[in-house]
């Protein structure tokens, strides 16, 4: 009994140990550093827009099969069984039965009628059928382009949001560093105050400055949480999932002037190609409508059995016979009240409207590229200026701290230098974000957003 209890205790401890290791492994996996490439891959895998676009692309093959089915033979089988409790009477002349001058009412048919047949039809010529087949293939290409465009839109959102989180976290690092520095200064002033070498107002001002920094940190921390939740939404992952954006990614941002030299071919960009494929579909739609002016030709055939009997038509008492037919059917449209003509004109108007959209989109894409180049150039200038400002602010703060320690400068100078350094650091991180966003916009304007996946 004691042996079984000891074994049970050992098993329970092993289970708890394995569970603990699993939980720790899961936690580590959730908080592993999240690179931009991984964030984009997660979004393209999980986001509903990407999933729906892929399903539309998959479903386009089914539409091709549906269009192709109209050009294949159509085979239908029918069967029926009818019971006539009262046969219909037909009037015939009595002369036929040797009763001149009389009208005789005679029932025709049998109480039971049965039939079974197979009908086959094959389209020989129908312009609308072949146009629909071409349109279905074009539709498949259209959904492929839409899927690619959807991926680019998701990449743009996730990449922009990723760097916003990155900058917010970098600002947290900056403010934590400032809090640590301010705390050290406050401790020095507090020691000087106790020794009668500093005024109480200097200590109070230092405490107020530290309190303001801590309040700013709390606000910034809340902002980081909101930005991370938005990033998770764009990635299509549960909000409760823990993510960790590595701060080192911000340091790797280096201005690149060479990217501005790449001139895009607007006609190869997804936005433009989607509209052009829509134009093809509208042209085919007009062609399918025009098919209403053309005759259609089809071949039909049927083969079946029919049975008549006074009783249920099964067995020797029933009379069954077969029949067959083959025919060619020609349908020639003559006049439908100008309905087809009106539909063709409507389709032509839709094409012209889309062509206006295509022209406007081409102008817009060229405008976006020029604006993105200008914005990136301005962002690089601002980034370099802010980087220089941070270096100067750090130098001023160091000198002010030394002067204050030696009694050569008042506390006001030190606090002003500290605030200036904080402002310069925040401006620099914001400039980094502006640069990265401008870079993403230029990459988008060049049609190379998917290069971020590499």
Automatic annotation (TrEMBL):
State the superkingdom: Bacteria
Keywords, in A-Z order: Cell outer membrane, Coiled coil, Membrane, Signal, Transmembrane, Transmembrane beta strand, Transport
Q: Which InterPro entries match?
A: OMP_efflux, TolC-like
Subcellular localization, as worded in the UniProt entry = Cell outer membrane
Q: Matching Gene3D superfamilies, A to Z?
A: Outer membrane efflux proteins (OEP)
Main localization is membrane
The stretch of residues making up the signal peptide is 1-27
Coiled-coil ranges per the record? Answer: 37-70, 203-230
Name the family: Belongs to the outer membrane factor (OMF) (TC 1.B.17) family.
How is this protein named in the record?
TolC family protein
């Amino acid at each position: 009994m004691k042996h079984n209890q000891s074994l049970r205790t050992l098993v329970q401890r092993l289970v708890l140990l394995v569970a603990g290791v699993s939980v720790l492994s899961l936690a580590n996996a959730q908080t592993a550093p999240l690179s931009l490439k991984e964030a984009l891959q997660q979004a393209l895998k999980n986001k509903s827009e990407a999933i729906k676009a892929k399903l539309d692309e998959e479903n386009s093959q089914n539409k091709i099969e549906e269009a192709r089915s109209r050009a294949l033979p159509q085979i239908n089988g029918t069967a029926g069984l009818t019971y006539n409790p009262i046969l219909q009477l037909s009037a015939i002349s009595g002369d036929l039965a040797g009763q001149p001058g009389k009208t005789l009412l005679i029932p025709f048919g049998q109480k039971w009628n049965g039939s079974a047949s197979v009908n086959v039809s094959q389209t020989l010529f129908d312009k609308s059928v072949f146009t629909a087949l071409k349109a279905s293939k074009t539709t498949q290409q259209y959904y492929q382009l839409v899927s690619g465009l959807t991926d680019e839109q998701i990449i743009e959102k996730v990449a922009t949001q990723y760097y916003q989180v990155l900058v917010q976290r970098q600002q947290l690092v900056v403010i934590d560093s400032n809090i640590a520095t301010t705390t050290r200064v406050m401790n020095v002033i507090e020691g000087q105050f106790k020794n009668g070498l500093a005024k109480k107002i200097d200590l109070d001002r230092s405490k107020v400055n530290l309190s303001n920094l801590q309040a700013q940190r709390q606000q910034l921390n809340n902002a980081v949480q909101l930005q991370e939740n938005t990033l998770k939404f764009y990635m299509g992952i549960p909000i409760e999932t823990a993510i960790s954006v590595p701060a080192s990614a911000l340091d790797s941002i280096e201005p690149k002037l060479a990217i501005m030299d790449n001139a895009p071919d607007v006609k190869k960009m997804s936005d433009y190609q989607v509209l052009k494929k829509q134009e093809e579909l509208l042209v085919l739609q007009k062609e399918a409508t025009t098919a209403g002016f053309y005759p259609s030709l089809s071949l039909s055939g049927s083969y079946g059995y029919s049975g008549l009997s006074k009783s249920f038509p099964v067995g020797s008492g029933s009379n069954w016979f077969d029949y067959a037919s083959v025919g060619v059917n020609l349908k020639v449209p003559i006049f439908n009240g100008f309905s087809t003509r009106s539909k063709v004109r409507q389709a032509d108007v839709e094409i012209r409207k889309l062509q206006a959209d295509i022209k406007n989109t081409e102008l817009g894409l060229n405008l976006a590229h020029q604006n993105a180049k200008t914005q990136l150039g301005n962002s690089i200038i601002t980034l370099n200026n802010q980087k220089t400002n941070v270096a100067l602010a750090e130098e001023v703060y160091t000198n002010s701290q030394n002067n204050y320690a030696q009694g050569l400068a008042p506390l006001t100078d030190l606090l002003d230098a500290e605030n200036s350094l904080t402002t310069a650091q925040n401006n620099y991180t914001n400039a980094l974000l502006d640069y990265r966003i401008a870079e993403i916009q230029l990459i988008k304007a060049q049609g190379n957003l998917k290069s971020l996946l590499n």
